[in-house]
C-alpha cells in the first residue's frame, strides 16, 4: 500500500505541477502589476474591517479561518521536512512560491467572493462554485468538489493528527504501549487523540460561526507566540543570521541535496503550507461579509505572507541557527549528506523544530512546540472540515440529503485517529496526493477563467478606481461585464430599492 501511495504521489507531484504552480503565480503577479506588493498597506487596513452579519463573517474571521488551514503542520514539520530532504535552499523556493502565490491567492479568493451564494443562512463559495458559474463547466465543478471532499475529508486530516502524536511522544515519551487494531500505540498518544476527537466533534457540529469564533482567538495567539520564541532564538544568535541567509540563498541554486530536490521540496512544502493555488483558501474567503470582492482577495493574499514569510521562516531560522537537522540524499536513498543530530530522528516530523527550541529553552521549548502543533493542527483540521462541508453543500444541489455530511464528519474523525498512529512518511505522501489533486484542477481552472472572462482582474481595477475616486465602495458585476454573479446582482437590486 505504501509503495502504491508513493508511486501515485510521484506522478501527481511531477515537475509539471511544480512549474505550473510557479507559472500561475508569476502569470497573475504580472497581470495584477504585483498587487501583493502595491496593496500591502491596503491589506493591513482591510484586516481591521469589522463587517459581519447573521449570514457572513468578518474579514478578520475569514482570515483566521483560512489561516487555520494555512498555518498548520506544514509550518513546523513541513519546513523541517523541506530542509531534511531538500536542504536549506528549499526555504528560498518556499519564499518564491509564497511571493508569487500571494497573487494566485488574490485571484482565487476574489473569484470565490464574486461567485458565492447564500445557502441555508450561510455564504458558500469556492472553486466548484466559480467553475460552475464562470466557466459554466459543471463537470469540472463536480470534479473539484469530489476531489476536495476526498482530500480534505480523507487524505489531509491524518497529516495534522500524525504530527500532533509525534510531538506528544517527543515531549512525554510513549507511555504504556496499548494494543489496538492499528498495532501497539503509546498511551500518551491515545490521550491526545481522545482530546482532539472530543473537541473536534463539539465544534464541527456548530457550523462556520463556531469554527470562526474559535480560530480567531487561537490562531493569532499561537502564531504570535511561536514567532516571539523564534525571534528570541534569532536575537540570541544575531551573529549567525547573515551566514544562515547566505547559506539559504547559495544552496537554492547549488543545492546540497540536488537542485531538483531543493525546488521540488520547497515548492511542494510551500504550497502545502500556504495553500496558494490549491483551491482551499476561497472557501473561507467566500464566507466573509465585504463591500467588494477584491477586498477579501487582498486579505487572503496577505495570509500567504503570514503563513510562509513569517511562520515558516521562523521555523527555518530556528532549525538552521541551532543546527538541529540532518539532510538526506535521494541517491543512494537514506544516505546523509549532512548529519548534525541522531540518525534515528525522523526527518518528516516536527522533531527538528522541537530539538531546536530545546537547545535554547530546554524542556519548555520542546513542550511549546508540542502545544503549538496541537492547536495549529487542530485548527487546520477544522478548516479541512469546513472545506469538505462547503463542497458537500455544492453537491447537495444534485444529491439532496443530510447523510453525506454526517458521513464526512465521521470519516474525518476516523482519519484523525488513523493518521495519529501511522508513520509520518506514509501519511505525508497521502496528504501530498490530496494537495496535488486539488492544485491541478484549481490552477488549470483559474487560468482558463482568465482567458474566458478575466473577472478577478476587472474586479481589482474597479476597486482601485473606486478607492481613487473616494466615496462608498460598491460592486456592480453587470457594469464590469461579469455574468452569473447572482449574489451581488441581488444585493445591488436590494440597495437600489432601499434608496427609492
Automatic annotation (TrEMBL):
It holds the Pfam family Na_Ala_symp. Its main location: membrane. PROSITE patterns: NA_ALANINE_SYMP (PS00873). Belongs to the alanine or glycine:cation symporter (AGCS) (TC 2.A.25) family. It is a multi-pass membrane protein. It comes from Pseudoalteromonas shioyasakiensis. This is Alanine:cation symporter family protein. The chain crosses the membrane at residues 12-31, 139-159, 186-205, 217-238, 244-267, 302-321, 367-387, 399-421, 433-453. It is found in: Cell inner membrane; Cell membrane. Keywords: Cell inner membrane, Cell membrane, Membrane, Symport, Transmembrane, Transmembrane helix, Transport.
Amino acid at each position: 500500500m505504501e509503495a502504491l501511495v508513493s508511486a501515485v504521489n510521484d506522478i501527481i507531484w511531477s515537475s509539471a505541477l511544480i512549474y505550473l504552480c510557479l507559472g500561475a503565480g508569476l502569470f497573475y503577479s504580472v497581470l495584477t502589476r504585483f498587487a501583493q506588493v502595491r496593496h500591502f498597506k491596503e491589506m493591513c487596513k482591510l484586516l481591521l474591517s469589522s463587517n459581519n452579519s447573521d449570514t457572513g463573517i468578518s474579514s478578520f474571521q475569514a482570515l483566521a479561518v483560512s489561516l487555520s488551514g494555512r498555518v498548520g503542520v506544514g509550518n513546523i514539520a513541513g519546513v523541517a521536512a523541506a530542509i531534511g530532504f531538500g536542504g536549506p535552499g528549499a526555504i528560498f523556493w518556499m519564499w518564491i512560491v509564497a511571493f508569487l502565490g500571494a497573487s494566485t491567492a488574490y485571484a482565487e479568493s476574489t473569484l470565490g467572493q464574486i461567485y458565492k451564494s447564500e445557502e441555508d443562512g450561510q455564504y458558500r463559495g469556492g472553486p466548484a462554485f466559480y467553475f460552475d458559474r464562470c466557466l459554466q463547466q459543471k463537470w469540472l465543478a463536480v470534479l473539484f468538489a469530489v476531489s476536495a471532499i476526498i482530500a480534505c475529508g480523507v487524505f489531509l486530516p491524518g497529516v495534522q493528527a500524525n504530527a500532533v502524536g509525534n510531538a506528544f511522544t517527543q515531549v512525554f515519551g510513549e507511555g504504556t504501549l496499548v494494543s489496538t487494531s492499528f498495532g501497539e500505540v503509546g498511551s500518551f498518544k491515545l490521550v491526545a487523540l481522545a482530546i482532539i476527537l472530543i473537541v473536534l466533534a463539539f465544534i464541527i457540529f456548530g457550523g462556520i460561526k463556531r469554527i470562526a469564533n474559535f480560530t480567531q482567538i487561537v490562531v493569532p495567539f499561537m502564531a504570535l507566540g511561536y514567532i516571539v520564541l523564534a525571534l528570541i532564538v534569532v536575537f540570541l544568535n544575531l551573529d549567525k543570521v547573515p551566514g544562515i541567509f547566505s547559506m539559504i540563498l547559495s544552496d537554492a541554486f547549488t543545492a546540497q541535496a540536488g537542485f531538483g530536490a531543493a525546488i521540488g521540496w520547497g515548492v511542494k512544502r510551500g504550497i502545502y503550507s500556504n495553500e496558494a493555488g490549491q483551491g482551499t483558501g476561497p472557501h473561507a474567503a467566500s464566507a466573509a461579509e465585504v463591500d467588494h470582492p477584491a477586498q477579501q482577495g487582498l486579505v487572503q493574499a496577505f495570509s500567504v505572507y503570514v503563513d510562509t514569510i513569517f511562520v515558516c521562516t521562523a521555523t527555518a531560522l530556528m532549525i538552521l541557527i541551532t543546527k538541529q537537522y540532518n539532510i538526506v540524499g535521494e541517491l543512494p536513498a537514506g544516505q546523509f549528506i549532512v548529519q548534525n543530530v541522531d540518525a534515528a530522528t525522523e526527518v518528516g516530523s516536527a522533531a527538528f523544530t522541537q530539538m531546536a527550541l530545546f537547545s535554547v529553552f530546554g524542556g519548555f521549548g520542546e513542550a511549546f512546540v508540542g502545544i503549538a502543533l496541537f492547536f495549529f493542527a487542530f485548527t487546520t483540521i477544522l478548516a479541512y472540515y469546513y472545506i469538505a462541508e462547503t463542497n458537500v453543500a455544492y453537491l447537495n444541489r444534485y444529491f439532496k440529503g443530510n447523510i453525506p455530511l454526517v458521513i464526512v464528519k465521521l470519516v474525518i474523525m476516523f482519519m484523525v485517529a488513523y493518521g495519529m498512529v501511522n508513520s509520518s512518511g506514509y501519511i505525508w505522501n497521502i496528504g501530498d496526493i490530496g494537495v496535488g489533486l486539488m492544485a491541478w484542477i484549481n490552477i488549470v481552472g483559474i487560468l482558463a477563467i482568465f482567458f474566458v472572462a478575466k473577472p478577478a482582474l476587472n474586479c481589482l481595477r474597479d476597486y482601485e478606481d473606486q478607492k481613487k475616486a473616494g466615496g462608498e465602495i460598491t460592486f456592480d458585476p453587470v457594469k464590469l461585464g461579469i455574468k452569473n454573479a447572482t449574489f451581488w446582482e441581488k444585493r445591488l437590486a436590494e440597495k437600489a430599492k432601499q434608496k427609492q
